[in-house]
Design goal:
Subcellular location: Nucleus, Nucleolus
GO biological process, one term: positive regulation of transcription by RNA polymerase I
Structural class: mainly alpha
Mean pLDDT: 91
Function: Involved in nucleolar processing of pre-18S ribosomal RNA.
Pfam family, one: BP28CT
InterPro entries: ARM-like, ARM-type_fold, BP28_C_dom, HEAT_Utp10/HEAT1, UTP10
Largest sheet: none
Oligomer: single chain
Number of strands: 0
Radius of gyration: 40 Å
Helix content: over 70%
Number of helices: 33
Strand content: under 5%
Length: about 675
């Protein structure tokens, strides 16, 4: 202790030495006892630094030497020793403080490296003192240090405690009780409002909260009672308006740990905890500006939801609202970030740990609140509902089916309610709703699904003004056809006539009237055609039960073929629709017919389109012809004599592109049918 005291009194460097007269007084005692240990005047700056380094190294080595440790172990005056050890720790911490301030003061000077090395050596000395303390002594010593006047000493004492708690795995019962006695002391530091530097105080309060978190994690399960006041104190902190954000972040993490450990004993605190926690999450500006604070708030809500899911119902709507709002913030951090992973876990807990009777009404209310003003929130909300439906037991699904159906009927009106909004954005949101609906459809029996599907069909017909429901329904039908595959033909019989009517009504070669009464009518009509053709394509593709009877084929034939001359949306849209949607649909239509008495009229009607006035339509008809032949293979031979005269006409077409496409078509037919056709022309 005297060596440390002497080192503290030495000047930082030679220039700072006050000279022989002034320095004489402070060194008199030492001079009398030891003579002048180190004369600053007669030594260089480098020698002064060397002396300090050697002194600290000497003490560090001495404290860990075998002979010295043996004497400590054999010493019987434990009480006297404990007091000395506490004083030594205080001195070392005080010296570390002095060196740390020298490190800061010499950052830009050539001696910066020396001060950093000396600081590390001083910390090494602190570890050696710490290692000498038996656990029984360590705890009272730390307790004494936590009362020290210097904030830095109090903080280092808590750091030492934290390291000890984290490193050690086995504790005796008496030691645990001693450690738990520190809890009130730590709470006092957390609540402390001493008149000292705010920054120092904030860091100490954070360290104390971290200590409480570690103690709770280590010993709270078996000794929950001392930690109830910890939870109360942390709730007080997050309820305060003026609290420093980093302290609040630590308080939130402490709440997460303590709630997780206390379990049922935390329930009485929920009426204070949940509103304060949700209020924290509502303040988006502060959350966005401080990532650690955001992560702490999400972690606290996650742990509360994980530990006490059945007690969340009074706060569930607010929880859902905050979680779905977080999605927008979380996107910026990326999917693999800690914050994203925790928000995902939180959504999963809300989706899987709550009974349908509690969650479904909250989802419905949440939807009503965000549907019109915060559309970006609908995706996470639908994800939560989807995950809930996927995990639902069969009997729960049956008992809640009518409630879910009512919700979807309301949610599927999203497109109608946003008829004038950006089509792409509306489409994205609608996709989440339909995806969620499909998750329910896939769990229903045929008997349960049939009335739901017919209800949706009737729903799509009931809104006469905007017809946006029809667009939504055709999209739903397309998605269901994709999931149910061949099974969908059991329910799709009454769609045939309706789809045929739609194809005719949205064909500008047959009518001049706009199908939709809105500014973006053309874009909507193009989408409607796309969903209708895609759904029919899937019906034909998965038809193994002879769904496409002669009557149904005749109903659909002309509406489909006439789409070859429907130039709605301009050239680019027309070409994209024909190649990606219409031609695959017509080709699959020919396969599903499986009847040569129907192939002939289909082929003939396509051939008639090759005489259309527009070269684009003639070109499209040729593409359709090849695709049908590709599907029918050798069966197309019977249709060939009828096709030759039409192809012969196109060989001399006024449009060069059509003429070239005709030659290409003949070559493709030769490959498909395996016969030379040039002799026919």
């Amino acid at each position: 202790m005297k060596i440390i005291q002497y080192l503290t009194e030495l000047p930082e460097n030679k220039e700072d030495d006050p000279g022989p007269k002034q320095s004489r007084t402070c060194k008199t005692k030492l001079k009398n006892q030891y003579g002048q240990l180190f004369n600053v005047e007669s030594h260089s700056d480098k020698q002064l630094r060397h002396f300090k380094f050697l002194s600290v190294s000497f003490m560090s080595q001495l404290l860990s030497s075998q002979s010295f440790v043996k004497k400590i172990v054999e010493c019987e005056e434990t009480e006297k020793l404990q007091k000395l050890e506490q004083r030594l720790l205080e001195k070392v911490l005080h010296y570390i403080n002095t060196v740390a301030s020298s490190v800061e003061g010499n950052v830009d000077k050539p001696t910066a490296k020396f001060w950093r090395v000396l600081l590390n050596k001083s910390y090494d000395m602190l570890d050696k003192v710490n290692a000498l303390l038996p656990t029984e002594t360590f705890i009272p010593v730390i307790r004494g240090l936590m009362m020290n006047q210097l904030p830095s000493v109090r903080r280092k004492a808590m750091d030492l405690l934290n390291n000890k708690v984290q490193q050690r795995t086995r504790w005796q019962k008496s030691q645990i009780l001693q450690l738990l006695e520190l809890v009130p002391e730590l709470i006092a530091i957390v609540q402390c409002k001493r008149k000292e530097e705010e920054e120092e105080q904030a860091i100490n309060r954070q360290t104390a909260l971290f200590s409480l978190k570690l103690l709770c994690k280590g010993f709270g399960t078996e000794n929950p009672v001392p930690f109830v006041p910890v939870l109360k104190t942390a709730i007080d902190l997050i309820s305060s308006e003026k609290e420093e954000k980093n302290v609040m972040g630590s308080a939130l993490l402490c709440i997460a740990e303590v709630t997780c450990t206390l379990k049922a004993q935390a329930i009485p605190q929920l009426p204070r905890l949940m509103p304060a926690l949700l209020k924290t999450l509502k303040n988006k500006k502060e959350l966005v500006s401080n990532e650690i604070y955001l992560l702490s708030a999400v972690t606290a809500l996650l742990k509360v939801a994980e530990t006490l899911p059945h007690f969340l119902s009074p706060y569930l709507l607010d929880c859902l609202l905050q979680v779905v709002h977080l999605e927008k913030i979380v996107v910026e951090f990326g999917p693999s970030s800690q914050i994203s992973l925790r928000v995902t876990s939180l959504k999963t807990i809300l989706a899987t740990r709550l009974a349908p009777r509690i969650l479904l009404p909250a989802v419905t209310k949440c939807y009503s609140e965000v549907a019109n003003t915060q559309k970006h929130c609908l995706r996470p909300l639908m994800n939560i509902l989807k995950e809930h439906i996927v995990g639902m037991e069969k009997e729960h699904l049956i008992s809640h089916q009518s409630e879910l159906t009512a919700f979807f009927m309301k949610a599927l009106d999203f497109r109608t309610e946003h008829a004038q909004d950006d089509l792409e954005e509306v489409g994205k949101t609608e996709a989440y709703i339909i995806d969620c609906l499909i998750s329910m459809v896939m769990k229903l029996s045929e008997a349960s699904f049939r009335p739901l599907f017919f209800k949706l069909f009737d729903w799509s017909k009931t809104e006469s003004t905007l017809k946006d429901r029809l667009l939504t329904f055709h999209r739903i039908a397309d998605c269901i056809a994709d999931k149910l595959k061949g099974l969908f033909t059991l329910f799709a019989g009454h769609l045939v006539k309706s789809f045929a009517e739609t194809l005719n009504q949205v064909n500008i070669s047959k009518t001049d009237e706009a199908f939709f009464d809105s500014e973006n009518s053309t874009e909507k009509s193009c989408l409607l055609l796309q969903f209708t053709m895609d759904c029919l394509h899937k019906l034909f593709l998965f038809d193994t039960q002879k769904f496409l009877s002669k009557e149904r084929a005749e109903t659909l034939m002309m509406p489909l073929v006439d789409q070859l001359e429907n130039t709605l949306g301009g050239d680019e849209k027309f070409q994209e629709r024909v190649t990606a949607h219409l031609i695959p649909c017509i080709a699959q239509f020919s396969v599903a017919m499986a009847d040569d008495s129907l192939w002939k009229p289909l082929n003939y009607h396509i051939l008639l389109k090759t005489r259309h006035t527009s070269p684009k339509v003639r070109f499209a008809a040729l593409l359709a012809l090849v695709e049908v032949a590709q599907k029918l293979r050798e069966n197309y031979l019977v249709l060939l004599p009828e096709s030759i005269p039409f192809l012969a006409e196109l060989m001399e077409d006024e449009c060069e592109e059509v003429e070239q496409q005709c030659q290409k078509t003949i070559q493709q037919l030769e490959v498909i049918l395996g016969e030379p056709l040039q002799s026919y022309f």
